[in-house]
Amino acid sequence: MPLPNRIAPDGGLFADPARGLLFGNRGGRFHDPQTLALPQRSYASRQWICCVLSFKQRQRQVWGRGYTELFFCDEVTALAAGHRPCMECRRADALAYRAALMRGTGLLVPPSFPEIDRLLDAERRTGRRKRVHHLPAADLPDGAMIADGPHWLAIRGGDALVWTPAGYGTREPRPTGTAAVLTPPASLAALAHGFRPLWHPSAQGEGD
């Protein structure tokens, strides 16, 4: 029986047998290691990161007494949920994310990662609810994730890819008008200014 440790683009947790490309955590443990139950609050601190699946041959008991391990379809999903690259196991990606964020926001001094975490925390949620940003769809960079009725859509070129736990399904035309954007503005700025997230292989298709 799979644990509810998969992360949806809106940051919610759910159970699914599909294997993701990345895992991460939200700053510590928030599950009960005895019952594997979740409290109402689905994070332990502002440090929401996404990591590689294997690092220095470390072995962990998932949802044991350590931090609450979470799994993502890909990095586009992780960014939409409000996570950023881990500075330990993905140092080059974390530094590339920060550099692109600086270019996109006009910062002249590199922010510390705790400062980036505070920025993302303000942008990804309002209380315990996912914060949605209403922005022009035409201006969204590749890798932005939007909510569109019953679907979550990832922007890629002129297409919007329908998200599923196991990857991307059908392709739709990029929406027009104002979109309900899940990806925090800080990560949108990074995506628009050179950061290249890890996409699920199913995102490849005609026109790529």
How does this structure look, described?
With 208 residues, the protein is of the alpha+beta class. It has one domain (6-203). 20% of the residues lie in helices and 25% in strands. It is built from 4 helices and 14 strands. The protein has helices spanning 75-81, 91-105, 113-124, 185-192; strands at 6-7, 13-14, 22-25, 49-51, 70-72, 84-85, 125-126, 129-130, 133-136, 145-148, 151-156, 159-164, 167-173, 178-181. It has a 6-stranded antiparallel beta sheet with strand order 9-14-10-11-12-13. Strands 5-3-4-6 form a 4-stranded mixed beta sheet. The chain has a two-stranded antiparallel ribbon with strand order 1-2. A hairpin with a 2-residue loop joins strand 11 (151-156) and strand 12 (159-164). Helix 2 packs across helix 4. The termini are far apart. The mean pLDDT is 94.
List keywords for this structure.
208 residues; alpha+beta; six-stranded antiparallel beta sheet; four-stranded mixed beta sheet; 25% strand; globular
Helix content: 10-25%
Report the average pLDDT across residues.
94
Structural class: alpha+beta
- Low-confidence segments: none
Shape: globular
Largest sheet: 6 strands, antiparallel
What portion of the residues fall into strands of 2 or more residues?
Answer: 15-25%
Which strand order do you get reading across the main beta sheet? 9-14-10-11-12-13
How many E strands? Answer: 14
Structure annotation, total helices: 4
* Radius of gyration of CA atoms, rounded to a whole number: 16 Å
Give the terminus-to-terminus CA distance.
Answer: 37 Å
The count of domains is 1
SSE ordering: EEEEEHEHHEEEEEEEEH
